[in-house]
Fold this sequence. Notes:
Layout: E1 3-11, H1 16-29, E2 33-37, E3 40-43, E4 54-63, H2 67-81, E5 95-101, E6 106-107, E7 112-113, H3 122-131, H4 144-149, E8 155-158
Antiparallel strand pairs: 1-4, 1-5, 2-4, 3-4, 3-8, 6-7
Amino acid sequence: MAHTAYLGFGSNIGDRKRNILKAYERLSEKGLKIIEKSGFFKTAPYGYESQPEFLNSVALVEVEAGALRLLEIIKEVEKEIGRTETFRWGPRVIDIDILFFEDLVLKSEVLNIPHLDLHNRCFVLYPLAEIAPDFLHPVLKITVKELKKNCRGKVEKIEITPAPDLRF
């Protein structure tokens, strides 16, 4: 049975655009169907501010796997693209978060859905509102566009043309 999920992508090391596009490609190769993608947004770092700006995007995906298997796939892709563990909110080649998995509410030691801090993260809410403004947060019972109205952060949409050697 196919499920839908919203994934958040961020990168602030190396070729940020290429890192995110490569993540889309690798997830597709692992069986996820990318249904819709937001644009790209340049954003200030969150949590730890002494690092380069991030490039962020959000995608709606269809996946046959459940939420925990999706997390495993995401961790595989992050590692393949070059992510290494640093410190909380530190710089990263790629970061992929499960924002929503349908209307599932899950709290475990390895995964929380919806993403616990999503409602405070402008770098997620701006691209998410672009493709899912009316999606209802299953815990807060507020739409994404309403959550975005409360955002206070530096977010700038930028135009990026896809790299010719990638499918996206």
